[in-house]
Design brief:
This protein is of the alpha+beta class and 682 residues long. Among the domains are: 84 residues; 127 residues, no CATH class. 31% of the residues lie in helices and 24% in strands. It is built from 18 helices and 24 strands. It has a five-stranded mixed sheet with strand order 8-9-10-11-15, with no helix packed on it. The chain has a five-stranded antiparallel sheet with strand order 17-18-19-20-21, with no helix packed on it. β18 and β19 form a beta hairpin. α14 runs parallel beside α16. The radius of gyration is 32 Å and the shape is globular.
Length: 682
Amino acid sequence: ISDQKPLGCWSVKHGQILTCPVVCNFETHEYIAVHDDKVLRIWKNEDINLDKAFKATDLVLVLQLSADVYRIHSLPGGGPVVLFRGGGVRTLDVLLEAPQQEIENVISDEVIRWSGAFMEGQQLVLIFTTEKDGDFFVYVQKPKLSSLHKYKLEQQESSKPLCFTGHITNQTVTLLCLYSNDSVYQVLIPLQQDTEEEEEEEILPKSLLLNFSVPGTVLKGTSLVVLDKDHVAVLGSLAVPGKEPRECLSIWNTKFQTLQTSKELPLGTSGQLWCYEENFFLIHGKVLTVIMYKCETSSLAAAVGKLKDSQNSDVSSFVNWNTLEDEELVVSFQSQESVALKAESKMNLRSRRSTVAKVQPETLSVGQLLLNLKDASTYVLETELRQLMSKPPTPDLQATIGCVITALTDRCKRNPKYYPQNFLLELVETRDLSYSLCPDLMAVALEKKDMHLLQICLERFPDIPEEVTYACLKAFLSISEAHLQNIDVNLDSVICYIDVECGDKEVKTEIVENGFSAEMDQDMCDTKIPKETQSWSAGESCPVGLQKAALLNAVLHSAYTETFLLPHLKNLPAQQAILFLRYLYYLYVKCSEKVNTTLPGIRSPTINQIMDWMCLLLDAHFTVMVMLPEAKELLSNLHKFVRAQVRFYSELNKIEGSLRELQRLNHLRESQTYSIEVLEII
């Protein structure tokens, strides 16, 4: 989440449908999914592609169950439990022993509307609600004790529950119900100790906990989560008479019936809200947004917004809205809206300082300042921005820098002649930035063909999308060596292992250290190479110049996920793919010259990075390379070299036992003793 980087992607076969959310088994670190209602699949994180894993490995477990699954719940310490659509509950361990066991039908003609799992001590408690003919029922079950209790919710005239949430405290289930009349009701259910089912269902009374009606507005909630015993968060739409509803996220104090803070979501949401470890997760526009929050101690002063704000106060802002404000700032600049409040870098709706009678330039928020400078001259813009960057660090410094870069890239788009290369380089080199803070920066750099800035971004940004990494690779391979001679590029990663003579040609070296030389056995590969093909072997010079090699090294250092990068690599032109593979092969041979297989220099590629990219490139273009005559010699050399390396390490493995015995004997000798010994290894 911190890097906004996808780490894995799994898919089922064509025609299959995932029918409930995937969960993690905290005890075994496995994922559990259900597709087509009855098929349970369990796999580990190492299985990169589920479709292949299902066919090629026994690590992925597939269970065909006898009844439809509604939801799987998994909690740390509680173990996964499976809730079936008929109301039956089984632990995962029980299902693994007998997948086809008969599942009882607990509910009759009822439809499950919500379910939740909670821990009471060491015991997992499962709660689910059902609906039948307008009536709502609550089931409380302890799977390991086979304890089931059924209750009926007290009816509410002219309104019905929209969503549920709850928690357990002191052997009592607190069920919160968001109703269609813009109110939250509370239902208390004591956990009973007996294990027998109730013969008669008990009617549960409810009490009004919260009403969302604010003077002049009505909040239509769609999702509700509990933050602590005194606070809830509601995602919904704010209805104002005469205006279109606006979606917003709000936090309410249930103890004092007050609105703590709220934030409009102009990009729209999916209506779903999740909460985990003091972080909100919601879909805002087209992205998954994470918002940090901190529940303060509930007090009357805090509830009515009268809590004093001072530097020595231990009370922090309730919600950090920076994530949302960064997204809105980008939207406001793209649409050139003049709403300054959208871009405030720090917002605290509970307490506002109003001691300044006259607004000075230094008191403007970052968003207001940037909007005021939108049409300023280049000199004025950069002067003001440098002053802004020179101020003492603040908690929201990262968001401020992201807003500044967004303002600069926006001006570059509107004015093709404007491009503050030095200022952008200074920001990227001196600040700890990420791609997500300035998503348009690399796109502008690609358009301006600013190879130096792209190199720095690739080396420093931890969250570059694979599509952008591919675009940089293609740009580096397509640019001419003559053009690169006039570009300032950081050569620290290549200058120590590419020896340059006049004319920028590398000194030819012979490779013998790790068991391979150009004159090694020629019978390792039967491929015959036409004489007219271009000669390029292990001992030849680097296939690219210093500048291009440094740029390609930056790509090798960029983080990626194979599943997302491979489709883009398949679009790389064949000649560029061959050139890149030649360079990777050159690096591979260079690494093998050294006993520790490490290239000298700063940020030089590692042997693992080189081999991973070689495998990726061959996977994406192997068929094409086999068909191209100019690639045959390269593939042949690569084949011979890899076979020589395998044979060399195989020979080392044969004498591993003898080497260990020598090491043991050295430890037994006295350190002062001097001797010369000849040991014959047979």
